[in-house]
Amino acid sequence: MTIPTLTLRSGHDIPQLGYGVFKVPAGDTQRAVSEALSIGYRHIDTAAIYGNEEGVGAAIAASGIPRDELFITTKLWNDRHDGDEPNAAIRESLDKLGLEHVDLYLVHWPTPAADNYVHAWAKLIELRDAGLSRSIGVSNFEIAHLDRIVAETGEVPAVNQIELHPAHQQREIVAWGQQNDMHIEAWGPLGQGKYDLFGLEPVHEASVAHEKTPAQVVLRWHIQKGFIVFPKSVRSERLRENADIFDFALSDAEMAAIDALDAGDGSGRVSAHPNDVN
Ligand code: NAD
Q1: What domain range includes position 91?
Q2: CB 16 near ligand 1, within 6 Å
Q3: Does pLDDT of 154 surpass 90?
Q4: What is the Å distance from ligand 1's center to 19 Cα?
Q5: Whole-number Å distance between alpha carbons of 108 and 78
Q6: What is the CATH number of the domain that holds 27?
Q7: Is the CB of 52 inside a 6 Å radius of any atom of ligand 1?
Q8: Cβ-Cβ contacts under 8 Å for 176 (sequence gap 6 or more)
Q9: Mean pLDDT across 129-140
């Protein structure tokens, strides 16, 4: 399986498809990640708050896959933005992962009420410069947050990892990314199963036309939009299904029909608004 890569502003390449382990139970993580690696996934998205970095690390160690063929992301949790906490936090994550560096380290949420995300971002720049992460980025940042960190540090994040799926397409942030060479990572790419995405007409029609599952159609839409995705599943058949999206292409008309599913007013969001996570 050949998974396409995108080049981040850091100059490092990221596989456009990965495996995200949010809500994968700690006790099942090594098995699930090992299975993903054996299927051909090389990009794993975890976070300190997911509580499963050890399982990711155990799977990496057992795999024997050369370090430079893997792309590992983890994230700084909200209560560790202040002082030198980001430095302590990334070192704890690296210990759990059994790694000397991660490929991407993200500020998980801006927590605007605490007003410390600029400090957290400045610390990530130091951690990147110290070699602890190859690339750095943010997650759940709104345009006001992005504008502010760039104004205060001069550094644009390599990625912004945001909730994004057909009903919630985040067009303003996507446009900001295009203008500023920041890639978009789409979390909840399948809408977290919280609305009947797979039953929507354009998804269903493309699924029939290409003899692919609705999940494969939606993931393929993300890939053709240029987004980075890491759908979560603990089932090996779905891990395989989700990676089997590189042998077909949606037509311009099919892409446009899925584009038209955006609620347009933010009402398609299935999880919390970043301003409300503090
Ligand atoms: P998702 O859209 O990937 O949905 C996951 C759900 O879809 C699972 O319950 C699974 O059962 C189902 N599913 C997966 N493959 C399927 C298939 N082929 N057919 C039918 N159903 C299928 O949502 P997610 O897990 O929230 O997002 C993916 C990843 O994004 C996470 O694992 C995590 O790494 C990341 N994430 C980041 C944040 C953040 O704040 N940065 C928040 C949530 C998730």
Answers
A1: 5-265
A2: no
A3: yes
A4: 9
A5: 7
A6: 3.20.20.100
A7: no
A8: 143, 146, 182
A9: 99
